[in-house]
């Protein structure tokens, strides 16, 4: 019984600071045209999220989650290899 209690407390302490719902760095897709600073919808890991882009995005663009603000994602367009070269 003592060992079970010890393991339960140990697991709780170790996992307390983890955020299992962190979307930072995840890639998604814009589901509509969204202007910079306005709200729109993106699909990330099969879930629809309200998002605020740091730059204009068009429907179908791949976006990267920069951070979360409450229940909204702040996103930016994912840079493609062709754009990096130019």
Largest sheet: 5 strands, mixed, barrel
Secondary structure category: alpha+beta
**Neighbour order of strands in the largest sheet:** 1-2-3-5-4
Quickly name the level 1 CATH class of the domain at 23-78.
Mainly Beta
CATH homologous superfamily caption of the domain at 23-78 = Nucleic acid-binding proteins
Instruction: Average the pLDDT over all residues and give the rounded result.
Output: 85
Helicity range: 10-25%
CATH architecture of the domain at 23-78: Beta Barrel
Q: Residue ranges: pLDDT <50 for 5 or more in a row?
A: none
Shape assignment: elongated
The arrangement of helices and strands along the chain is: HEEEEEH
Count of DSSP H/I helices: 2
**Gyration radius, rounded:** 18 Å
- Please provide the count of β strands: 5
CATH-defined topology of the domain at 23-78: OB fold (Dihydrolipoamide Acetyltransferase, E2P)
Beta-strand residue fraction = 25-35%
Gap between N and C termini: 64 Å
């Amino acid at each position: 019984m003592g060992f079970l209690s010890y393991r339960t407390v140990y697991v709780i302490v170790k996992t307390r600071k983890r955020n299992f719902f962190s979307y930072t760095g995840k890639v998604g897709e814009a589901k509509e045209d969204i202007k910079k600073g306005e709200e729109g919808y993106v699909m990330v890991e099969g879930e629809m999220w309200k998002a605020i882009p740091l730059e204009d995005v068009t429907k179908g663009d791949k976006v990267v989650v920069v951070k979360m603000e409450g229940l909204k994602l702040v996103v930016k367009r994912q840079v493609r290899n062709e754009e990096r070269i130019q």
